[in-house]
Amino acid sequence: MKNVNGESQIDMQLSMPALLIGAFENFRTALNAASLPGLRPSHYRVMALIPAEGLKLSELARRADITKPGIGQFIAHLQREGYVVLDRNPADNRSKIVTLTASGVAAADLSRQLIAETEEHWATILGTDRYRELRQTLLELKALSDPEPNKS
Question: For FRET with 89, which of 1, 6, 19, 41 sits at 20 to 30 Å CA-CA?
Fold first, then answer.
């Protein structure tokens, strides 16, 4: 069976997933260089999903596409490191609200800044039109696996 490039076997180093991971590496490298104590790239992604007013833990799990036990582990780690606070939901004692501390806000801001810088860098390298096309293509591919339509 031939792949879309007409080759009989996929060169794993040149496969689309490998290329996407490689393109992501410059962001990961910048984030690791500027990283705050106790944080990995996945922590920044989760913290960036928490609005200033806080969020129900179950909603954060949904937005992050992480299981409830998984998000619980994330939040427990971030709480130990001082980046989030987990409190009872005053509107519903059965649920909990997660909010960012000042350190958490700084970490989420750092993540957003590095993402913006990475995207600006890619737009500069590719040119505005090719960058927009790449972004649109990735949104289309993401939509294939999204249960909800993309809201961006």
Answer: 41
